[in-house]
Amino acid sequence: VQLVESGGGLVQPGGSLRLSCAASGFTFSSFAMRWYRQAPGKERELVAGISSAGGSTNYADSVKGRFTISRDNAKNTVYLQMNSLKPEDTAVYYCYALRVVMGYWGQGTQVTVSS
Predict the structure, then answer these.
(1) What is the mean pLDDT of residues 85-105?
(2) What is the dihedral of CA 27, 93, 101, 48, to 10 degrees?
């Protein structure tokens, strides 16, 4: 099982980034997917989630209206489009695959929002 995040980097406040998480080794289309983030000295927090078929999404209040989660089951990939980025969005972003009691984590990708 592998979840490989990419797309992180350094961006100025107000900028955009698109994170990707490529999955392999399991039936991706059967799993709900989530994005979490963890800032230095803080607990890991849920940012966004999407159902297995992509018909249902949910977001943390702090990112609603700025972030969009989506998935392409044909490509075994989940995305997080992040717009209007703020310094407080700086964190390591992780994707997470969830099905009942099974869960898999990616290794994370760093997002830094700074001028």
Answers:
(1) 96
(2) -90
Inter-CA distances, 92 with 16, 45, 79, 88, Å: 16, 11, 15, 12
Give CA 68 to chain center in angstroms: 9
Cβ pair 95, 21 in contact under 8 A: yes
Calpha distance 72→6 (Å, rounded): 15
What strand order describes the sheet that includes 17-24?
2-6, 17-24, 77-82, 67-72
CB-based contacts of 69: which residues, under 8 Å, 6+ apart? 33, 35, 48, 49, 50, 57, 59, 78, 79, 80, 81
Contact 36, 92 (CB under 8 A): no
Reported as a single tens digit per residue, the pLDDT across 50-66 is 999 999 999 999 999 99
Q: C-alpha distances in angstroms, 43 versus 31, 72, 79, 92?
A: 24, 29, 22, 11
**pLDDT tens readout for residues 72-85:** 999 999 999 999 99
